[in-house]
Amino acid sequence: MLSSPIQLYKKAYSGLSRNSWYLCLVMFINRSGTMVIPFMTIYCRHELHFSISQSTLVMGAFGAGSILGAFIGGKITDKIGFYYVQVMALLIGGLLFMVLGYQVSFASVMAGSFVLSICNEAFRPANSTAVAYYSSGGNLTRSNSLNRLAVNLGWAFGGLLGGTLAGINYHLLFWVDGSTNILAALLLLKLIPASKVMKQIRKSIMTGKAASPYQDGVYLAFIVCAIIFATCFFHVFTMQPLYYKGPWHFNEFFIGLLMGINGLLIVIFEMVIIHNLENKRHPLNYICVGSLVIGAGFILLNFLPPSYYSAFAVLIFITVGEMLAMPFMNSFWIMRTTPANRGQYAAMYTIAWSVAQIISPLLGGQVVTYSGYYALWWVTGAMCLGASIGFLVLFRRNFKQKHIPIEETVF
């Protein structure tokens, strides 16, 4: 007998800690203002009148800064704990968003994007460590999905609002993004007071083992595959908006609407999907399939006519692939950590995405400049296939005969 939808959702959300829900709320507030980066290439191209190469270089500056920020954030997290790293990154990042909105020259926008990204990405390893800390092994993937739910619910709201604000005045994007960062920091201080958690956090750091992620060969191989995967996925925020704005002639509102729908679909379906998949197969299996589905979504752009229906079809493929891959990618790296080294593992995973954030717009810009969008979508699909094969080989060589349930691997 099939469970009713209400029972499915009740089971999917049960058993999560109060602090996990608090982190979810903080992340929702923060991500509700995420509207600068999704519209940054369009802003640079059509408002500041940068070339396509310059616009993609700005996104590359975000990626370069995020590498340094993730490394610093991971190191500090393992030294002092995740709490204050999150708070300071949100506060300072909020102010830097506002400052960036007043930069108009290519050099100043590049510099501002780099510095802002350092601060923004220092937050990610600390936040990932916090999510793992407040979860138990049995609901680790769901705890990550709850965090992603907040991200995507905020993303849906921010994407819709961002598209509207961009049509009025692009400077509003920077003010809203900065303000929500600051509000999220204040909310974190209120909901989870430092006095109630810092003692336990320091104790867990002092008592855990601290093996280095840089000596973990399996993890390093996973990181290489993750970079390839993320390079493709970032086209959703860099090259795909330019494609929709240019050859397909969509306006900013509809581009923002697509981003919002992506977030809403994840909010509605991901937790139920993860509840039914968690601990049944090794995470790398789901990541492999998700990579393939995302690649198929990009390739569809070469076959479908330019229309709203085509954009929605591509969106469905990419969203399904994202729901299958990303929650389990987080679970995989957390499985290999202890509280004493989780910040550095999280930093390396964040750095993988930061490297991809550099490669993606640079590669995309060059391919489009010399060969056009048609070639770009084929290259992206081929790279997704390569990432999928890499994840599959990693699973077969290391885990096929010895899968250990997640709840037995988290310290």
Automatic annotation (TrEMBL):
Domain of life: Bacteria
Protein name: MFS transporter
Primary subcellular site in the record, as a coarse category: membrane
Organism encoding this protein: Mucilaginibacter ginsenosidivorans
Record-annotated membrane-spanning stretches: 20-44, 56-76, 82-102, 149-172, 178-197, 218-238, 253-274, 286-304, 310-333, 345-363, 375-395
Keyword Secreted belongs to the record: no
This protein's UniProt keywords: Cell membrane, Membrane, Transmembrane, Transmembrane helix, Transport
InterPro entries: MFS, MFS_dom, MFS_trans_sf, MFS_Transporters
Residue span(s) of domain Major facilitator superfamily (MFS) profile: 19-399
PANTHER family: MULTIDRUG RESISTANCE PROTEIN MDTH, RESISTANCE PROTEIN MDTM, PUTATIVE-RELATED-RELATED
Bilayer disposition of the protein: Multi-pass membrane protein
The keyword RNA-binding appears for this protein: no
Location of this chain's protein in the cell: Cell membrane
GO cellular component: plasma membrane
Gene Ontology MF: a single term: transmembrane transporter activity
